[in-house]
Write a structure and sequence with these properties.
The chain is built from three helices and no strands. The protein has helices at 4-12, 16-32, 56-78.
Amino acid sequence: MMDAERLFKEIQNLPTEVQRALVDRVLRELRASPPHPPAPVAVAENPFLGLLSDEPDLADEILFVARKTRQEGREAFNGSEDAT
């Protein structure tokens, strides 16, 4: 199969009437063909990440801080001596 640029150059060398007939034919074909379904959207493996899916290190740091803060809160609530 020819690449698009080469094909376009060959079409430019055709007489104008032939070019118009070719364009009309392509338009008829496109109108007759069923529409393509929308392309699937990539979904992160873990939907929790959302906007952070391209920043895994930042997501890890946020989760680390959240877990640490949660643990410290539990220890403080339970009266642990190790709470900071």
